[in-house]
Amino acid sequence: MKTDQPTKIIAHRGYWKTEGAVQNSIRSLQEAARIGVYGSEFDVYMTQDEIPVVHHDPKIEKIDIQGANYESIREIGIGNGEKLPTLEAYLKEGAKYPELKLILELKPHHSEETEAIAVRVVLDLIEQTGTGAQVEFISFSMNICRQLRRLMPDHPVAYLRGDVAPDELAAMGFKYLDYNFVKLLWKRSWIREAHENGIRVNTWTVDNRVIMRKLMREGVDYLTTNEPIEAMALAESTIAHREIMPDEPDGSTPNQ
Ligand code: MG
Question: CA 165 to CA 187: how far, in whole Å?
Fold first, then answer.
């Protein structure tokens, strides 16, 4: 199935390949908004005292975030002059850009109990910051995805691990998936199978232009990348190509 919409582009850990930004910084979120990308992705871990922070790795300066109190890590710098951002600060900043989707990756935590607390705390913060219309969820934890689906049934929730076929996800009630591009290139029928089951497809993390184009032509709905400016331009030109194709009366090859 080819959709008639250009693939929506998501900046992986924000748009960080620019002056003054690093991955998962507030600055990378601001830069994602500035370039007009569909969404800005970021990673969330919760501390022992239940403060969610934005960070990709489970540890920061060798300290396990889940085992630490927030006070003990709050002053740690992330490399661009910013301190470790809290999710609250991140969402408050994101709320300034209502057109920007906030692609919240809630990381797997040490136990299902901790994950249940993390889900509740994150949803409370979303409500407090009024960012409900902007946030979309992704997670490698099926437990987290299931809980988010149950508590936020109308919200996009995409499972990341790539080990569940689209028809199985559909049977579980999922409307989105977000799988590694290698998996989708290997399981090429999964994009079609997802669409046939009413599931929208995101893919991570695609930085190669040839692979971007290939997946866009296959009809992926979203593409997550560290090269969002290039991907946005490619998405626009790819949809133009798709639109021209059916109307070519003489079967000539459209310009690329
Ligand atoms: Mg992530």
Answer: 9
Q: How do strand 222-225 and strand 101-106 relate by DSSP bridges?
A: unpaired
Q: How far is the CA of 247 from the centre of ligand 1 (A)?
A: 39
Q: Is-contact 118 143, C-beta < 8 A?
A: no
CA distance 53 to 87: 5
- Cα-to-centroid distance, 201 and ligand 1 (Å): 16
Distance between Cα 42 and ligand 1 center (Å) = 6
Comparing CA positions, the residue from 171, 205, 6, 22 lying closest to residue 103 is 205
Mean pLDDT per 10-residue segment, the chain (256 residues): 78 97 98 98 98 98 98 98 98 98 98 98 98 98 98 96 98 97 95 96 98 95 98 89 43 40
The environment of the single-atom ion ligand 1, i.e. residues with CB closer than 5 A, is: 43, 105
Exposed/middle/buried for residue 164 (C-beta within 10 Å: 0-12, 13-18, 19+): middle
Domains of the chain: 8-241 (3.20.20.190)
